[in-house]
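Follow-up to my earlier ticket, as requested here are the two runs.
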Amino acid sequence: MNLAPNVLALLPEYILTLAGVFIMLAEPCLKPGSSRKPLGWIAILGTLLAAGASWFQLGFGTVHAFSGSIQTDAFSIFFHLLIAAVVLVTLLGSLEYFEGNATHAGEYYALVLFGAVGMMLMTCSTELLMVFIGLEISSISTYIMAGFRKGQAVASESSIKYFLLGSFATAFFLYGIALAFGATGSTSLAAIAVGLGTTKTPTLAILALAMMIIGLGFKVSAAPFHVWTPDVYQGAPAPVVGLMSTAPKAAAFAVLLRIAFSGFPSMQHRWAIMIWILAALSMTIGNLGALLQRDVKRMLAYSSIAHAGYLLVAFTAFPVEGISAAAFYTAAYAAMNVGAFAVITQVGGFNETARTLDDYRGLATRRPVLSGVFAFFLLSLIGIPFTGGFFGKFYVFSAAIGSGHIWLAVIGLINSGVACFYYLRLLATIYAKPTAEASEVAPATPVSVPAIVGLTLATVATLVLGIMPGNTLWLAQYAGTSTMIENAREQCAATPNNCQQMPVPMERR
């Protein structure tokens, strides 16, 4: 077995794993009560090296490793870089959050890295059992981090509820893998795509796909599999919510894209209907649920459900357009949402003194810079021009209209209008005149330099994606095109008589 492809294909995962193991070994060696910031900086360094390794992989084209179960291409590298960026912003905003408040804070940094390993493994796996392993690595880490504020009832409730419902959803995904094997004789996506043409049990294959969509629907908080989201987001630490609302969702959407367009492309006329329904339900239930919330984290939890619906709209488009639209929207949503929760982290602190809308009243008079940054992220979540959220929605809805799903785009536009109400309500509260009874919600200490760097990165990314989206858009389109080319090659190799013309690679403009 050639070791070079195996090392190159999982180089970012190796780096993150080594950094996480080193942190776990170093943490017990530190004196009790001493600062754990050095461990955080090690985690940040490991994340930067992993991002560099992912960018390095881009020059090698498509790399197959571990008997074809791992495929590193432009598609997986796009999501690797995205996950690394989210983890970096999360770690920068967490250095002060846990300082002096949580025991074993070093374990938090290691868990973040281990979770990123699972997410990255999910995005580059073309074997469903490997996807399952990556999903479990990611899930176990986030289960623990959700309850990291020990001693608080809402934290324990968040962790237990996330674990129980997450395990239930994982069982659906695993059972779907078993049914896919029964229908096609393989758990490899390329073999499944070929086996669907000759299977004698197409109903079993449809059921397998439905089971896997249900399992992944839980991970991305798509309705009606969203019931865990508000309670978990409310009880989990703010930086953890910023991470779990973006990076694991990005990985789950990457898996869903591979399964839909690589494993079950011949059944697009069937799974597109399921995705259409999930998208419409998620957008509607998410936005209507957010209208009723006064807790800011619960409001953003329902908002994330709605944004999952917007992203699912892209799945109904033609393959290349759908993949590129979904990839770009994932990047835009990750930038603005992780930035919004980074602001919440700084405003509320470890004890989360700012929870409801009343706690944010008059925040602009006390923290004008943080309020301005928060307002920018909220405007991007609405989809105001010159922000990443605007261009992401424009690209997704344009792809849906181009594929003939006009009514789904109309539902999305109506829901975007509904979302304006609760986003603007929070924005108006921030800039309202504070009442005499308003308590001071800002932390006693100023925002740390690492947190400022993290907020700056998220702000710049959201702004660049809104005014200069060319490079990211090209990479998203290239990821979609390269994925379809690789699918066509694998199917041609398996069934030469049924070869179709392969897509033309995207040229950078």
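Run two:
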Amino acid sequence: MRKTFYRLIAYYLSIFIIMIGIIQIMPLAVLPFYPEEISYAYCFLIPGITAMAIGMMMKYLLRDTEIVKLEKNYDAVLIVLIWLSAIFVSTFPWMLKGDYNFTQASFEMTSGFSTTGLSVVDVENTPHIFLMFRSLTLFIGGVGLVLIITSAFSDKYGLNLYNAEGHTDRLMPNLAKSARLILSIYSSYIALGALGYIIFGMPVFDAVNTAIAAVSTGGFSVLNDSIYGYHSLPIEIVTIVLMMLGQTSFILHLALIKKKFSKIFDHCETRFFIFLAVVFITLMCINVYTTGYASGLGQILRVSVFQFVTCITTTGFVSVPTLVGLPSGFVTIMILMMLVGGDLESTGGGIKQYRVIVVLKGILQQIKNTVRNYKTVTTDFITRAGKKSELTESEVSAMSSYILFYLLLFLAGSLIFTLYGNNLQDSMFEFVSAISTVGLSVGITNYNAPAVILWTATVGMFLGRLEIMVVFQSILRIAKDVIKKENI
């Protein structure tokens, strides 16, 4: 039976490899606007055509594969292989360009598909076709490779695969329709955001790329100075709105479309976000004022609000000249917000606010139980989009385990960065930016960074996007099958 599953995995993978090949040639659409970049077409055509040919050959050879439902954790194996394939194939355009080695290209493409935004690219000296390719990876990575395929196919056997990618946001009874709805919502926000940017003076190419990066909470910019480079308050405000939309659960977007505004406010993550914003923006304002980093209420608020939003939404845009020199307390708050991250069912990364809420409720419940009569039985509830559900001990335990594992990986990655001479705060900042798929950088990850630094960040970004457990489930599944085979 295991052979059947692996054959089916290979069959499904062939379909995705064909699509990955198509993705490689999509950036060619910018050539009519930038015909002088036609010389770079081969960088995309070679890997694109090759991937499509390999995918079609695999699909033909496996055409007699029996379609069955994948058992537990085999869907995780497929998800990991799909994402690794997308990243691997997408490294070739950068390597064919001649300026990047495999490590750098893998870092850049993992950053793109994971919607992180860390970069080793000098964007102001990079052809438009490559910048659009980066933004395309943000779009696909934010929505999800599986979701995009699902939008074109029925969901007869797709739900496990869809959930394994980190989606639980099934908005409609039919999975394919749900996927198309998410795509339409996502695309509409990008179009409106780009229009807003253009109205406030941003060039069209910049506007499209920045809107994609903001809604996908990716943070790739076409300027080395990010949003600060535009020196525009209206552009910063549009960016804040788009980042907020990107980190918001798709369940709430559906409520917004249906004008069921009460569901938006009767949602635990909405309330938690408001609480975090009030407390930590206040602390950030106090810190930049007392340290003299900024003066004037308007400037203090401008710096604090934008940096708070870019961290908690895990986007990675900046509205200050450089992150180096920010007050230490301000940076500490940024690290905490990057750890917390966005909503559970959104393009945002991090631990996710819902998990933090569940664990905090569990802790509070434990405290209450210590002072109550031991015979008293209490039940705690949690509300999502107006629906109240019982908070079980198993859910609290699962969320607690996830957060603990997440923090252990965060500390391990930070330790590796310190071994290369970086101070602890900078190391923690840089690695949490990677594992929480944020993209803010104090300069540790760059074009000339040691390979170990780049690969550590690459692994962090990959684990963060697939929410850790999927990767380890796939490794354990394969290891278990290998051990069984050896024992036969």
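The only thing I checked on run two: The longest strand covers residues 380-384. Let me know what else you need.
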